[in-house]
Specification:
Length: 168
């Protein structure tokens, strides 16, 4: 069940909060290219079907995934879900990112900031590289099953920095 969905979708702050869980990000990744049932996602991620069903229901109720097909097989109803997009952008750049909020109670934190001067084409190239890097680490997170792993919130925010105006 492959079909094209948009690469990006705008989401509300409430919807973005639903993505504040590594487990839900893994589920979205599993549902990007192919529609699957909760059981199929659970098997792919090596997680319990009940837990995955719970998170899929939250993502569905929050409007981040679609129910694309329902089949009855041997008296059992199979529901196939697919992600609405690969990447989700929070509406309103001025809002605090609920996943990466500075007030987040964290055991450890690393913040890296810098300024660069780029053409629009260079900016797009840089964003594509960042998306690729993040996708790599979501894949690592999905396939890695270590007992000592911790959940991290990772984000890249690219903001145009206007030159300070001359004071009158």
């Amino acid at each position: 069940m492959k079909d094209e969905q948009p690469q990006f979708a705008e989401v509300s702050v409430e919807q973005a909060k639903l993505l504040g869980s590594a487990q839900r990000v893994k589920i979205i990744k599993a549902l990007v290219d192919t529609a699957k049932t909760s059981k199929q996602v659970a098997d792919e991620l090596g997680e319990s079907p009940g837990s995955i069903h719970y998170h899929i229901q939250k993502l569905y109720d929050g409007g981040l995934i679609d129910l694309v097909e329902t089949r009855t097989v041997g008296g059992i109803v199979e529901k196939y879900y697919k992600s609405k997009a690969k990447w989700f952008n929070t509406r309103g750049a001025h809002l605090i990112d609920p996943v990466l909020a500075d007030e987040y109670d964290a055991a450890s934190s690393t913040k890296i900031n810098l300024r660069v001067q780029l053409s629009p084409e260079q900016r797009e190239e840089m964003l594509a590289e960042f998306r690729s890097l993040l996708e790599k680490w979501v894949t690592v997170s999905t396939t890695s099953k270590t007992a000592d792993s911790e959940e991290y919130a990772v984000g890249i925010k690219v903001v145009s920095a206007e030159s300070p105006k001359e004071k009158a």
